[in-house]
Design goal:
425 residues; alpha+beta; nine-stranded mixed β-sheet; five-stranded mixed β-sheet; 11 helices
């Protein structure tokens, strides 16, 4: 990628509409642009990160044996009537009529569609367990969209659904996907907590949320540093207590000290039981030839919200600090040159081509701009490393590497590739 060709319209000053740091930095770095309230364009660098997150999610879901499908965003009313959620879901469900006056909605979730698919195409217990997932656009008509892509109306989500004959089988798959979620957030390089949760409008009795820790989070989490114990702090206090009063106390079932932190919900997994299968008559024949309602699991991850949460957790006063696996630019090559025939630019161009062939995400800043502007923009967009090729190269073949956290390393030109390849292994 050449900086001179990159479409990333930068904004110098913080936009007044942006309340949280992720919204501010995504706008300033030219990664997103607003179309309407809660609806955004994803520009090249932002879209790159979105796809990197999506691919990690896809790979880990596939590793569980779940198969990828793609379901429609537009859903008919009759399926939502079957599940009795057409009215229950409330005004967040955007309803509309087609030219034949038939009622439809834009899908905020896909339990109805998937249950209908299974009830019409699966008949025997021998086909179970079955797990299917998609990565798809959702729409929820939030009354007050805010925080940019953190709480938009249109967003990208991974939703998976599993089908079972009994509770034991459901629990096994639930635990398998729970482990896959942990692998996803570990690969993303994010600090997170798994929190006991309320199932809300989705339904079911057992559910857990995955929260990325960040000061801007809307939820306060009570957790232990000694184990995975975590719960929404509001569930631990009575009317006379404040959340702050929990600090230093211990958890109803252990002696582990309570710690408090803010969290951003980015994932939610449910054991739905037969809430939807019974309502929508999704059954199979068991081994005795009897009809039995399917046991279901549901597993969601906010792919686009993860992008915002990653920034909320990883930034400084210069800009974004992406975890390496999801940085849209891993390496910014910053030659200081006057002509394209300069030795600095010739070496920069060769390094750019060599690193790109190795599959690294590289930006060559080929613009005739002062160094200060180049490094400032590199820091703003969160490039993991800046490779500075200037006077020291022409004098003694030495190049300076600046990591996004500010560490500086001087290397000979012959050592650069090996260093960077190792850094991103």
């Amino acid at each position: 990628m050449l900086a001179s060709k990159n479409f990333a319209p930068l904004i110098k000053d913080t936009p007044a509409e942006a309340e949280v740091i992720s919204h501010q930095l995504l706008l300033r770095s030219g990664m997103i642009r607003k179309v309407a309230s809660g609806i955004y364009n994803w520009l090249p660098l932002g879209f790159k990160t979105l796809k990197l997150v999506e691919n990690i999610v896809r790979e880990e879901m596939a590793s569980t044996g779940s198969q990828e499908i793609f379901m429609p965003m537009v859903q008919p009313r009759d399926l939502w009537e079957d599940s009795k959620r057409w009215d229950k879901f409330g005004p967040e469900l955007l309803r509309f009529k087609d030219r034949h006056e038939r009622d439809f909605c834009l899908g905020p979730t896909h339990e109805e569609i998937i249950t209908d698919l299974i009830r019409n195409n699966l008949s025997s217990y021998k086909e179970l367990p079955l797990s299917l997932f998609q990565i798809q656009t959702k729409f929820r008509d939030e009354i007050r969209p805010r925080y940019g892509i953190m709480r938009g109306r249109e967003f990208l989500m991974k939703d998976a659904y599993s089908f079972h004959l009994n509770q034991e089988c459901l629990n096994n798959t639930y635990q398998t996907i729970r482990e896959a979620y942990k692998a996803i957030f570990n690969r993303l390089g994010l600090e997170y907590k798994i929190v006991k949760a309320d199932s809300g409008a989705i339904g079911g009795e057992i559910s857990e949320e995955f929260h990325v820790l960040a000061e801007s989070g809307e939820d306060t989490l009570a957790f232990s540093e000694e184990s995975e114990i975590a719960i929404n702090a509001e569930l631990l206090i009575n009317e006379k207590e404040s959340i702050d009063s929990l600090q230093g106390k211990t958890f109803p079932d252990s002696q582990e000290e309570i710690k408090l932190a803010k969290g951003i919900e980015v994932g939610h997994i449910f054991q739905l039981g037969n809430v939807y299968s019974s309502a929508m008559n999704a059954t199979v024949l068991d081994e005795n030839g009897n009809r039995q309602a399917l046991q279901m699991g549901c597993y969601g991850i906010g792919v686009s919200r993860i992008v915002a949460a990653a920034i909320e957790q990883n930034h400084d006063d210069k800009g974004i600090i992406w975890p390496k696996n999801i940085a849209p630019i891993q390496i910014s090559i910053l030659p200081i040159f006057k002509e394209s025939s300069d030795k600095t630019f010739i070496f920069a161009e060769k390094l750019y081509k060599d690193l790109s062939k190795l599959g690294l995400r590289v930006m060559l800043d080929d613009r005739q701009e002062r160094f200060g502007k180049k490094i400032t923009e590199s820091e703003l967009v969160g490039s993991s490393y800046a490779v500075v090729i200037g006077k020291s190269y022409t004098e003694n073949k030495t190049i300076e590497l600046i990591s996004r956290n500010g560490d500086k390393t001087e290397l000979k030109d012959s050592e650069i590739e090996k260093f960077l390849i190792k850094a991103f292994q």
